[in-house]
Specification:
By secondary structure, this protein is α+β, with helices and mostly antiparallel strands. The protein is built from 13 helices and 7 strands. It starts with 7 loop residues before the first helix and ends with a helix. 19% of the residues are buried. The chain binds adenosine-5'-diphosphate.
């Protein structure tokens, strides 16, 4: 009946899962940022720094080259200087350029096609290309010096100086570009580090906060357990007053509701038990009183008869009074008989009986009493009715009650029909009359003890009859007769051993 609810266990589990996931992702993220920082530091050490240094050296070397060129025409021993220049061109500059290239390759190892790399490479190639002619010009210069061709040497030197200055500007430009690039990277790293720090701190704080909230939430979820326990303890010590149901929509709410309905059921059962005990005591007392009253009643009836004999027939008034007393005494003794048979009814003593014959006997016994009031009485027996295990005396008593009720309902005359039929495993005895029937509003209470609509009725007949039939494993029911009047149906079970075949062989 309840909507499916999230259980206490799964709610607590869920809250811890949330905390764990948050904590895990915070940790994973911090590990990742740390690794990134380490990789960047590594790159700075093995990539950017050597790159910056080697470009710096390129600039410095070109500076020296230019200074040396200024003195080349005035040097005392040109062949010595020629060696320096040629070494610088053949080994010094290419080596530095190679260093710059390999440093660049390391820096851009992860992204060889980065635009920054391509720009720097292009610039490097341009400057390298600028200095490509130097080798020839230097040879021509020293040749001119060897020939003592001063004018041509000056010309060639100036050409070299001009070109050297351009190359130096190129390298300087390259250096600036690389420095700017490295600065940019360092700045970005710093910004990233600061962001990471901030995020980590807020991540940690929020994880802590959520953990705290989840702990409080779990506490609130299981809090009702204490209330239920408290209620259980109170009930155990005898407090059966209704308690409040905990309104949470989980097992605890369900537990509480079940517990309260259990407490209510226990309370009701206890009240019913007390009432039953009281009733039983009253019943016992009443049976006792009835028993005490019955004996004097019969002697009173006897004495009334004797008194009647003593009176002269002329004393009509006294005789009328006597007869009235007699009727009341008779009614009282009938009531006490019926009451006692109800209160002190013994368990039925079963014996095999021909049900058809039993019904016939009862009807014949009642015939005089019924027909005397001008009521017709007929019997219809289906042939081949089985023998049944019944208590003949009790069953007869039930039938008498039904017949007597029918006769009493037909105070203005009428007809009573008794039918006995068999359907499969049931023998039904039907007592029918065409009297006024039972009003709709009364049907429900018909079998209640002490329910009667008659002035001198006891209200015990139908109740007692039903008890007898039920003790036989059968049922007694009322049905309005289709053409008006009442019909009481008394059903008796046929044991399965007496099936149809048994009946047929008998008939
Ligand atoms: P009592 O006969 O003493 O009243 P019963 O238990 O036998 O007690 O019957 C209860 C009531 O059922 C009767 O008072 C009467 O109103 C109703 N009743 C029983 N049998 C019939 C019947 N055949 N026709 C109409 N009413 C009936």
């Amino acid at each position: 009946a309840m909507k499916r609810v999230r259980s206490v266990a799964s709610r607590i589990l869920l809250s811890y899962a949330v905390v764990l996931v948050l904590f895990g992702s915070a940790s994973a993220w911090s590990v990742w940022t740390f690794r990134t920082a380490v990789r960047e530091a590594e790159l700075l050490r093995s990539g950017y720094l050597p790159l910056a240094l080697s470009v710096r050296e390129l600039v410095a070397n070109q500076d020296t080259w230019n200074t040396q060129l200024n003195h080349v025409t005035t040097a005392g021993n040109p062949s010595d200087i020629r060696v320096w220049f040629e070494t610088a061109l053949a080994i010094g500059r290419p080596k530095k350029l190679a260093e710059v290239r390999s440093a660049l390759a390391r820096v851009f190892a992860d992204e060889p096609n980065a635009p920054a790399r391509r720009e720097i490479m292009a610039e490097l190639e341009r400057v390298t290309h600028l200095g490509a002619e130097d080798q020839t010009t230097v040879s021509q210069l020293f040749d001119a010096l060897a020939r003592d061709d001063g004018a041509r040497a000056l010309l060639l030197r100036d050409e070299l100086v001009r070109r050297g200055l351009r190359v130096q500007r190129g390298f300087f430009h390259l250096e600036q570009r690389i420095t700017a690039y490295v600065d940019g990277i360092v700045d970005a790293a710093r910004v990233r580090e600061r962001t990471a720090q901030g995020l980590l701190v807020s991540f940690g704080l929020s994880t802590l906060l959520i953990g705290l909230l989840m702990a409080l939430y779990s506490r609130r979820v299981v809090a009702p357990v204490a209330l239920v326990t408290q209620r259980a303890r109170a009930v155990a010590s005898g407090d059966l007053r209704p308690g409040e149901v905990i309104s949470s929509r989980d097992e605890l709410g369900e537990l509480s509701a079940t517990f309260e309905s259990m407490v209510q059921a226990i309370g009701e059962a206890r009240e019913r038990l007390l009432a039953a005990e009281r009733l039983a005591a009253i019943g016992k007392m009443a049976a006792h009183v009835t028993h005490e009253v019955r004996n004097p009643l019969s002697s009173m009836a006897l004495n009334l008869d004797l008194l009647g004999d003593e009176l002269a027939p002329s004393q009509t008034e006294a005789l009328t009074l006597l007869r009235a007393i007699g009727r009341e005494v008779q009614r009282l003794s009938a009531l006490s008989d019926q009451y006692l048979s109800m209160a002190g009814r013994k368990a039925p003593e079963f014996e095999a009986c021909d049900v058809g014959e039993l019904v016939r006997g009862s009807v014949e016994f009642m015939r005089r009493e019924v027909e005397r009031t001008g009521v017709g009485l007929s019997l219809e027996l289906e042939p081949g009715l089985p023998w049944l295990e019944v208590d003949p005396n009790q069953l007869r008593q039930a039938l008498f009650n039904l017949l007597r009720n029918a006769r009493e309902a037909l105070s203005d005359g009428g007809r009573v029909v008794v039918k006995v039929t068999r359907r499969d495993d049931t023998v039904s005895i039907e007592v029918e009359d065409d009297g006024p029937g039972v009003p709709e509003s009364v049907i429900e209470r018909l079998f209640d003890p002490f329910f009667t609509t008659k002035e001198h009725g006891t209200g015990l007949g139908l109740g007692l009859s039903r008890e007898i039939v039920v003790a036989h494993g059968g049922a007694l029911e009322y049905r309005p007769r289709p053409g008006g009047g009442s019909s009481f149906l008394l059903h008796l079970p046929v044991p399965s051993a007496l099936g149809r075949s048994g009946l047929e062989s008998e008939s």
